[in-house]
Design brief:
With 757 residues, this protein is an alpha+beta fold. It is built from 17 helices and 25 strands. The strands form 7 sheets. Strands 7-16-1-4-24 form a 5-stranded antiparallel beta sheet. Keywords: GTPase activation, Metal-binding, Repeat, Zinc, Zinc-finger.
């Protein structure tokens, strides 16, 4: 049994931020840290005190993490970025909110005495004496201390306090990984209740010393003649009251949800996986069909999570297309109106959304990337709604004559027609680029809808069913929010955002096959109608070719979409030399182009840039590639061996043990991550456990119906029999969880000796 922890993070928006620029505004962005390790950086929102980000992240991390901190920063082009404030959420706070922490919270001031990080290695011993016992404290080393000096390091020393007596170690220059190996002794009085305080400081010649963290030891817990040794996490000073500052630095709206899962061995989940796969293979329908029952008992709030978990489970079993086909049939069986087909947030719709992100993200980038980049680069003023035209924002035409409203509308229509035409042309040429598993799934959807709605009057319905996913739920959202689909590194400004919105509306009209209802909503979109009508013909021809795929081609090409392989990444990586003081320092960067495979990491000097989270994505990818490396080191040297010593810890031995522990467990979740079959099965089990009472009630209804002869016969097993098997599987898994060892991660060394003050 293993414990897996993950964080869902949504950084929504900020409000009432203080102005940091002379213009009376700020350029805010957020940095997210887990135990002082930066893992996320949002895009910068320019010239605002009420920024909107709307960015979502999923983070996998060790169960032993302590805090998640959100820093709001002001980006400056010519100087060091300013710190506006922060929000800190301890693990205990997140664990006390099973449904997640959600809402507005005030930013607090960033106090340097609270911005500590790292650990210190101590050996503690109480030695018996003739008159009194003596306390011996050996200060061995420290690691990952906060860099406080402009050279990117610190000059640390340790101050040990006990009963008014203070002793200090020597100063280790220019190191965040110092080694002291110094011992101090104090005389203990009988029945002493005092504590030992070990403080770490950065020595400064001309200014006051900087606080690096402290550890408080309860002397009473130490046993005579039994040495205690271990690494202790440095704690901050928390003596200042900040209640009077609440609201002065603005507020941040967050959604953060911690999920801890105890995952059993694979064999425990096999009955559940086999039962669900058996149902999908049979494709059986009726009131007791398990997939249908799961949909019925899933609330709207968690339907997306359940859909994603089921999809990943069946992807791992090679049954994704069969699972989606079954969902198509279930939804078609209860749909009588063609205009509502796949328009609700059903399990089928949510599962297809997840499927397209897993299997089609690279395809989407290939089709939309050039068009979206052109919109961002041109930054043209585009507006079709006469009530929203701002002529003053457009500029002048020839001979410096201001443009009229009619000229603005006509020029905007020309720009949008050009973008829409380019997009449709790129889409028409992309049939072969579309992954085979996506084409096969759309073919099944097209065929099922045509069988359900035959006849000439429903000729367009199969096409609209495909475009309801491809255009309305995939392409259009990516056009409106390219940052969230990793098409751009920053959010669009107001002008570009309006252009993208109008382009997305045009794509939706094409996807709706230019129906009268879609045209009537916004009559001012009429100038685009010639391009929209031409686009409908292009789109129908594209879909006809898209769904024309042979079974053998599907099987051959589907093997190329392997989600089991370790992730491979290429792109820019920034090598930097840190400048400034404090935990949030500016840096000068040197950019290199790297290429990562499962076997090698190479680089060149090719200039390129894509994503503001590039460094964190690289670290995440490297950790995922290394996860199965049996020779992975437990520690390493973050510095270089120069002259006769390591620059980080000043060790003299080049092959000596590393001074910092290897951080290999914090990763960002991406759609192309390797599947974790056991975790997905555990998440499905947990959901079913939450609706078990509803499943039992359904089972009793089916049993009564079978006795009365009112339950219709279906091929294979009776519906109530499948449900009875599922309930037995849930009971077995519950017993397996209760009988297995606790599985909680080992506590940090000697944590009982440390006082959290």
């Amino acid at each position: 049994m293993a414990k897996r922890s993950s964080l869902y993070i949504r950084i929504v928006e900020g409000k009432n931020l203080p102005a940091k620029d002379i213009t009376g505004s700020s350029d805010p962005y957020c940095i997210v840290k887990v135990d002082n390790e930066p893992i996320i950086r949002t895009a910068t929102v320019w010239k605002t005190l009420c920024p909107f980000w709307g960015e979502e992240y999923q983070v996998h991390l060790p169960p032993t993490f302590h805090t998640v901190a959100f820093y709001v920063m002001d980006e400056d082009a010519l100087s060091r970025d300013d710190v506006i404030g922060k929000v800190c959420l301890p693990r205990d706070t997140l664990a006390s909110h099973p449904k997640g922490f959600s809402g507005w919270t005030h930013l607090t001031e960033v106090d340097p005495d609270e911005e500590v990080q790292g650990e210190i290695h101590l050996r503690l011993e109480v030695q018996p004496g003739t008159r009194a016992c003596r306390l011996r404290c050996s200060v061995l080393e420290a690691r990952d201390l906060a860099p406080k000096d402009r050279n990117g390091a610190s000059d640390p020393f340790v101050r040990v306090r006990y009963k008014g007596r203070t002793q200090e170690t020597s100063i280790v220059k220019k190191s965040c990984y110092p080694r002291w190996n110094e011992t101090f002794e104090f005389e203990l009085e009988e029945g002493a209740t005092e504590v030992l305080c070990v403080e770490t400081w950065d020595w400064d010649l001309v200014s006051r010393n900087d606080f690096l963290g402290k550890v408080v030891i309860d002397i009473q817990r130490l046993q005579v003649a039994q040495p205690e040794e271990g690494w202790f996490r440095l704690q901050p000073y928390q003596t200042k009251s900040r209640q009077h500052d609440e609201g002065n630095l603005g507020s941040l709206q967050l959604e953060v949800r911690l999920r801890d899962e105890m995952v059993l061995p694979s064999s425990c989940y096999q009955p559940l996986v086999q039962l669900l796969c058996h149902e999908v293979k049979l494709g059986m329908q009726g009131p007791g069909q398990l997939i249908s029952l799961i949909e019925e008992t899933t609330s709207t709030e968690c339907r997306q999570d359940v859909a994603t978990n089921l999809l990943k489970l069946f992807l791992g079993q090679g049954l994704a297309k069969d699972f989606l086909d079954l969902l198509f049939q279930l939804e078609l069986s209860r749909t009588s109106e063609t205009n509502t087909l796949f328009r609700s947030n059903s399990l089928a719709s949510k599962s297809m959304e997840s499927f397209l992100k897993v299997a089609g993200m690279q395809y989407l980038h290939g089709v939309l990337g050039p068009i979206v980049n052109k919109v961002f680069e041109e930054k043209k003023y585009v507006e079709l709604d006469p009530s929203k035209v701002e002529v003053k924002d457009v500029g002048c035409s020839g001979l410096h004559r201001p443009q009229t409203e009619a000229e603005v509308l006509e020029q905007s229509a020309q720009t949008l027609r050009a973008h829409l035409g380019a997009l449709l042309s790129a889409l028409s040429r992309s049939v072969r680029a579309c992954p085979a598993v996506v084409r096969a799934t759309f073919r099944q959807l097209f065929r099922r809808v045509r069988e359900r709605f035959p006849g000439a009057q429903h000729e367009n319905v199969p096409f609209i069913a495909v475009t309801s996913f491809l255009c309305l739920r995939f392409f259009s959202p990516a056009i409106m929010s390219p940052k969230l689909f990793h098409l751009r590194e920053r959010h669009a400004d107001a002008r570009t955002s309006r252009t993208l919105l109008l382009l997305a509306k045009a794509v939706q009209n094409v996807g709706n096959m230019d129906t009268p209802a879609s045209r009537a909503k916004e009559a001012w979109m009429e100038p685009l109608q010639p391009t929209v009508r031409q686009g409908v013909a292009q789109l129908k021809d594209f879909i006809t070719k898209l769904v024309d795929i042979e079974e053998k081609d599907e099987l051959d090409l589907q093997r190329t979409l392997s989600l089991q392989a370790p992730p491979v990444k290429e792109g820019p990586l920034f090598i930097h030399r840190t400048k400034g003081k404090g935990p949030l320092m500016s840096s000068s960067f040197k950019k290199l182009y790297f290429f990562l495979t499962t076997e090698a990491l190479s680089f060149a000097k090719t200039p390129s840039s894509k994503c503001v989270n590039e460094l964190n994505q690289w670290l995440s990818a490297l950790r995922k590639v290394s996860i199965n490396n049996t020779g992975l080191l437990g520690s390493y040297h973050p510095g270089v061996f120069r002259g006769d010593k390591w620059s980080c810890c000043h060790q003299k031995e080049k092959t000596g043990q590393g001074c910092d522990k290897t951080r290999s467990r914090v990763t960002l979740q991406e759609w192309n991550d390797p599947l974790d079959h056991d975790l997905e099965a555990q998440l499905i089990y947990r959901h079913l456990l939450g609706v078990e009472a509803m499943l039992w009630e359904r089972h009793r209804e089916l049993s009564r119906g079978a006795e009365a002869g009112t339950v219709p016969a279906s091929p294979g097993e009776a519906p109530k029999d499948s449900l009875a098997q599922l309930l037995r599987v849930l009971q077995d898994l519950r017993e397996a969880h209760s009988s297995s060892p606790a599985g909680s991660p080992p506590s940090e060394p000697n944590c009982l000796l440390e006082l959290q003050t």
